[in-house]
Amino acid sequence: MELIDQRTKAIMEGCKERARKAGLNFQEETLEYIVTNRDLIELTPKLMIPTLYDYWVHDVEVLREKGRYELYPSNPYETVINTRPAISFYNDNNPDWMNVMIFYHVLAHIDFFQNNVYFKNTWDYDFTGQALSDKRTIAKLRSEKGRWVDYVIEFARGIDNLVGYYSEMTNNDVLPHHSESSALDFYFDIFLQVIRKVPVTGYMKELEKYNSYTKEFKETAEQVFFTEVRAKYPEFNSLLDRYRKHRGDNRCDIYQYILRNSESLHKEKNAWIRSIMEVVRKTSIFFQPQIRTKTMNEGWASYWHERLFLADDRIKGHEVDFAKTHSGVASMPRVGLNPYALGMRMFQYIEEMADKGKYSAGYMRISDSMEREKYDRKTGNGMDYIFDVRRDLCDSIFIDYFIDQDFVTRHDLFVAGRRLNQERMVWEYYVKSRKAEDYKDMMRDNLYHPPYITVDQSGENESTLYLNHHFEGKPLVNEYISNTLLGLEFLWGGPVQLETSEVVSAGGDERRPAPSSVKGDKQELKWKRVLYTMSGRKLSKKELE
Asked: Are 377 and 390 within one domain?
């Protein structure tokens, strides 16, 4: 692995100049490295971060990818990582015309990393430097503790999809009057609605009273208001104190809860375990925004490499080469999903719709298809609009808001179904639906959505870690429950319980769902709540009423 030569660097600087004129915004300093395919194979398990901590699973992945490469040689063009400065890697046999296209693709990625709000927690530090420090820490611990370090890493990585990504995002956005200890939040959000269960009319009267006090008493409004509240509800103070005491724990994720409350981890001899857990959590938090913006990020990069490459005079004579390469990246498959292709077409569609003023209330009220097709207010706002979309959204909002029936129809998109041809004993694919809502449902099912699991310590036994899986229609993967709870028991230092939902069994076989009503071709399953308990490295399960 080595830095690109000065001639290739000059090509990149030319691409930067053109990209900035087009509106992309990124830091001036970037690092570009030339690598071989085998270098990329070794970097891939570490998510392209050369300084990431060593772990035995990385070595297994490298061996597997080397075996696959021997059978199916491939030539990845580039990869870019969100660091300060941004680092990108390029295959050592890319021709100059291809580097022009790839540089534009990479610069659009960097623009996305440095401007999309879901990456804002990564803007203020260089992760590669932090990762190198963490790597040295773990290497030192491994020399002292041996294989136990890898056990802890494995246990911690078993729950690294449960980190509180959104709470981390909002930590720096909390306004002064919305602090965690705010009596105002507690009174209106919990005391009135959950504890007192006042009717809506009563709630609105209290809200109007507070608003009137802010106008009359200004800075002292809250003090006057709560003087009356405490006179009316003598129990308010004690409930507020309890709320303030537990508020921090309620907002933290499972990692943070264990780090704060595990008696085992607070023993001096186990301090090294805390260090490893913090490294794993910090690494997971760093990569969360990339997982949540895959379609947008790749679509944005594909949109700009096409737009800028075609306008670049340095590619004369290579238009056909570009067309062949670009079609391989941005072609829409008939079955399956290509985030590059879908995201690029969505940005192109959004720009066109905004240019014509079709995101206005007037257009939304038109039902006639011919009128909708002819509608064009020539606003010229399309480019500004897609930059706003790039800045503010993640994949779930992007897909939910901008995939509509016009987009699905224009690109001939559909949801594919699969059925068994019993005569030929082969699987057949067929067009199941061409409705935008069905297509969005399919896209949602393919998005990253970790289970929503919180700590519930309202029970009497505080030595047991009680986890509540807030069921959202998808069960946990049963085969991972035992090992994950085993690791949690080790980290927590005591019994662990997990409450979750499973399909009601039929005839004692949980692999076969019970007979139920069928809606369309979807079977409506019946669910039951179960409680898993890991104690003394033994797993038990019981059904809950």
From this structure: yes
Whether 530 and 459 map to the same domain: the answer is: yes
CA–CA dist 91, 408 (Å, integer): 36
206, 339: one domain:
no
Evaluate if residue 513 carries a pLDDT over 50. no
According to the model, what pLDDT value does residue 505 have? 56
Q: Is this model's pTM higher than 0.85 or not?
A: no
Q: What is the DSSP secondary-structure string of 333-349?
A: PSSS--HHHHHHHHHHH
- 268 with 314, same domain? no
Cα–Cα dist 241/219, whole Å: 23
Q: In the chain, what percentage of residues exceed pLDDT 70? A: 89
- Residue 176: pLDDT band by 50, 70, 90 thresholds? very low
Average pLDDT over residues 465-494: 93
Name residue 23's amino acid. Answer: G
Asked whether residue 389 falls in the same domain as residue 504, the answer is no
Number of other residues whose CB lies within 10 A of the CB of residue 67? 10
Which residue range(s) make up the domain with 383?
331-439
Cα separation, 346 vs 297, whole angstroms: 12
| Residue that finishes a domain, picked among 413, 439, 465 | 439
- Evaluate whether residue 371 is within a structural domain: yes
| Residue-level pLDDT at 458 | 67
Q: Could you tell me if 106 and 8 lie in one domain?
A: yes
Nearest to 102 by CA among 271, 315, 255, 256: 315
Give the model's pLDDT for residue 92: 76
Residue 68 and residue 40 in contact, taking contact as beta carbons nearer than 8 Å: no
Residue with tokens 């709000």: 117
393 CB contacts (<8 Å, ≥6 apart)?
Answer: 116, 296, 401
Residue 181 has pLDDT above 70, yes or no: no
The reply to whether 170 falls in a domain is no
Local structure of 217: helix, strand or coil: helix
